[in-house]
Design goal:
By secondary structure, the protein is of the alpha/beta class. It has one domain: Nucleoside phosphorylase domain (Rossmann fold, 3-Layer(aba) Sandwich), CATH 3.40.50.1580. Strands 1, 2, 3, 4, 5, 6, 7, 8, 9, 10 and 11 form an eleven-stranded mixed β-sheet that branches. Strand 3 and strand 4 form a beta hairpin. The model has no long low-confidence stretch (mean pLDDT 93).
Length: 263
């Protein structure tokens, strides 16, 4: 398949609008791992070729634990994507990370289960390194853009990824908080790990929508969507300006992630 895109955007809760793109095409792809969550929308943003994928499918019908992460990442790779920016709604585990803030995550703790997190199940073993799980070059561009836009943001953050679809108990929330984690969501893993196995640069954009239930507040979908809508234009501007700043050539280590990972 010809390269239809170079930069992928995976939209999560509240981030479904691909209308920032021009010259839109809709592409249906089947992968060896099944169908991706939705038809992929390709188009241009300035001079860059972009692919947009709705993580949870049309109408947000796919829960986090049932997203076909392998098909999603593989489909973007088939289209030629070498970098992925992934906006995602998160809960906050610390007072300073307030609803409406943006966090440029640098670490994760995986508390998911039953999700296939590798493409290498038979014939070859792959021990991919995720010591630093997100592309440092993409993170740098996001941080510099957030500074330029004067957004309330945090330049580091450890995210706990839980299985879902339920939210945490208060006891769990307090435990994650005690681990030194800053945010929590349900979709970061294995998405970012699979991207690394495909040698795709990946950086999440964590948008704080609420304080997790450690703060004696029951998390509701209404709270999350309300905050997401308030921040929609902010996230759109961050994406546009960050993409404009990304150089064509990759000089990070992500592009050679498999070099010392395969046995």
């Amino acid at each position: 398949m010809n390269a239809n895109a170079e930069i992928g955007i995976i939209g999560g809760t509240g981030v479904y609008n691909p209308n920032l793109l021009k010259d839109i095409q809709k592409i249906k792809i089947t992968t060896p791992y099944g169908n991706p969550s939705d038809t992929i929308i390709t188009g241009t943003l300035g001079k860059r070729k972009i692919a947009f994928l709705n993580r949870h499918g049309p109408g947000h019908k796919i829960p986090p634990h049932m997203v076909n992460y392998r098909a999603n990442i593989h489909a973007l790779k088939q289209l030629g994507v070498t970098r992925i920016l992934a906006p995602t709604a998160v809960g906050s585990l610390v007072e300073e990370y307030k609803p409406g803030n943006i966090v440029i995550l640098d670490q994760f703790i995986d508390k998911t289960h039953g999700r296939t997190s590798t493409y290498y199940e038979k014939g070859q073993v792959c021990h991919i390194s995720v010591a630093d799980p997100f592309c440092e070059h993409l993170r740098t561009h996001l941080i510099e853009t957030a500074r330029e836009l004067n957004y309330c943001h945090h330049e580091k953050g450890t995210q706990v990824c839980i299985n879902g679809p339920r939210f945490s108990t208060r006891a769990e929330s307090q435990m994650f908080k005690s681990w030194g984690a800053h945010t929590i969501n349900m979709t970061l893993v294995p998405e970012c790990v699979l991207a690394r196995e495909k040698e795709i640069c990946y950086a999440p954009i964590a948008m704080v929508t609420d304080y997790d239930c450690w703060k004696e507040h029951n998390v509701t979908i209404e709270d999350i969507i309300k905050t997401m809508k308030q921040n929609e234009e902010k996230v759109k501007t961050l994406l546009i300006k960050t993409i404009e700043s990304i150089p064509k050539e990759r000089t990070c280590t992500c592009k050679n992630a498999l070099k010392s990972a395969l046995i």
